[in-house]
Predict the structure.
Amino acid sequence: MFDKFGEFGSHEELNMAAAGLLEEGDTESLLALTEENGLDQDDAQEYIDGSVPELATPIVAAVGRLSIQKNHLVTNNKNVAERMAYSVMLSMLQTMCTDEDMAAAIMQKGKTVADIYKAMEDEAKKHASGSGQNRQAISCGTDQELRNIIRTYYIAPAQLRKKIAALYVFDGEV
């Protein structure tokens, strides 16, 4: 996903790299940096022209990161269930990254909705029903519960498994 410039852990790191490239006059690499990070080429041109003081705000950088995840996890994914789950989570995340704390959390290195999906899948398997080839596992909840799970993954990751397990608790019983 981040083959040329690597994954940045914050919008500040991204902006520092952009500033270095601009200072060197390497606009070609700056445009490549923009593309690799899911940012709009028009925004990059405004930055190059000096119309804006930085390449990306925290929110713009987070939206770019989500765009890269979408291309990587959804666009070329042959697994329909994964593709749908990733699409839903990424759509929710786009509405959540207007919060600057959440936008900063989205920019953490290595964070991806694939981890959330895997954690939900693992917990669902613990509660699967049926046997053999008919054994089925599903993790289901409300939109609000999914938003809370997503927020927990990014903001308080140590609580993620507990938050997902709570989907399977009804009236105090597991």
